[in-house]
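Schema walk-through. Below, the input block comes first and the output block second. Nothing else is stored per chain. Lengths vary across the set, and this one has 140 residues.
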Amino acid sequence: MRQVRLAKDAMDRDWADPELDLDAVAAHAGYSRFHFIRAFRETYGETPGQYLTHRRIERAEEMLRTANLSVTEICHLVGFSSLGTFSTRFKAWTGLTPTEYRTKHVGRGAALIPGCYAMLWAGGFRTAPGGAQRNSEEAI
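--- output ---
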């Protein structure tokens, strides 16, 4: 139980890392991937993949409501590498596409946070198309 909780904590901490996969999380617990899936499901009622997807979708919902970022930018910030997969899973979880969700929920609170601030808060900018790494200091 303790090892499974440690692995769940790692998912809660590193949910935005696109490199976070089942093998990495199972290694945190010290289990094989198949034993870890069974133990996690018994403990939390869903598979590790479902749990991580739900965490990422929850963060995407928050960003769609509060940040002035494109759906593609949010997709990558929450750890999805494919916009199609993100949109499909988002709709399955919320019943709305990311764009429909934003349209429904924006305007029900404070003004949107400018995208540049949201990107800096999320850890800076990812690798630029030319391959050069940009950090938050260079983006200012």
